[in-house]
Amino acid sequence: MNQPNQKIHFVTGKLAARALELQLQVLADKVGFEYTIQVLPITVAALLTPRWIAGKLKVPDGTQRLILPGYCYGDLEPIRRKTSVPVELGPKDLRRLPEFFGAKSTPPDFGKWSVEIIAEINHAPRMSISQIVGLAKKMIADGADLIDIGCEPNSIWNQADEAVKAVVDLGVRVSIDSLQPEEIAPAVRAGAELVLSVNSTNRQFAPDWGCEVVVIPDQISDLTSMDETIEFLAGKEVPICIDPIVEPIGFGFARSLRRYMEARDRWPDAKMMMGVGNLTELSDVDSSGINFLLLAICEELMIGSVLTTQVINWARSSVKEIDIARRLVHYAIQNRVPPKHLSDQLLVLRDPKLVDFGSEAIAALAEQIKDRNYRIFAEQDEVHLLGSRQHFHHQDPFVVFDQLMETSPKNMDPSHAFYLGYEMCKAMIAIQLGKQYTQDEALHWGHLTIPETERHRLQKSRPKKKNR
To answer: Under DSSP, is residue 11 helix (H, G, I), strand (E, B) or coil?
Structure first.
């Protein structure tokens, strides 16, 4: 925790010393602390180890906080035995020090939400029970509150009850998506607590099911076509939820949104649901943005449930996206703030911001490097490869590698070549998409990010073998 007028001691290597000093000159005044810097006799801070640091550490009197480079891996106990000052690791990239000291934290109530996620398993009759259970488990892990077993029109599935029971046995709530009473009744007896959907064709059976039902229009474009069904079910004391149905773009999308608003005006206290698949599945665009906007509409109109599918590849993570989106829009609307700088989990394609070292700093780094390791940067729309007094750069990473090989490097074994190719590929992707590239770290893909394992890290130079 940051405290005013703290005295903080920073430890770094020679390569990052100047950049660290420039960062701290600004941060110290802005955040309110005093600082000292110890530059250890090593070029790259990523090669520091706690035991090696402990042997050379000199902490000034009055220091209240000791911050090491984020790449300092290993047990910090040797350092803690050397000093009584609290020890911590800073960010791996010193350009992120401003965030380290003052980034806005996740709001304390960011986990709250008001929109329930109904995740549909489409074409369930075409699957085995074990496949249905497997999909249900994944959807539950991604944030689904209720699993919908999706049947197929114009046919009767005799295993609907078996599928429902198998998912109910997971300890999760289940709905059945069918208009066929012959499928619905067994599914409800097996534990389904919600029926999608009911209109004039099957409403007479609903009182016998003893569960909540979703009312849809007889004619999609006519909201009043639900009136008789709603009146009938209310008279039978059947709990209902209303879904005016979102239509795809090109088939009345804007008009369908107006129907949701009209439905809320007509039935101000009614439960409502929105099926978002007609947009996410039927639009050639990444689903996360669509899901976010539809969840914002649901939050404002007090639509308490969304039905989502994730069949087509670009919508395959819709359940997780909606789980993130419902929390974002809930916080934004409850606190009357834009949903900005609250979470980066839905920023999949591009990063929130880019931080550059700059051409002069990169050139200076190249002059200072004396070890055999290579550093890679992605700046000014080029891939930069830095070695000992070497600086190769080009928009095409193949050209960069050719430039390097023309120098006949002595340390280019197959493993090292693979590593450089892997890292330069990441750098090229970062340039193309506008993402932050940091060597030995995974590119940030929002909620889809998979951290890289430690074995991808910058490798220390191996000791030379002695001749026998």
So the answer is: strand
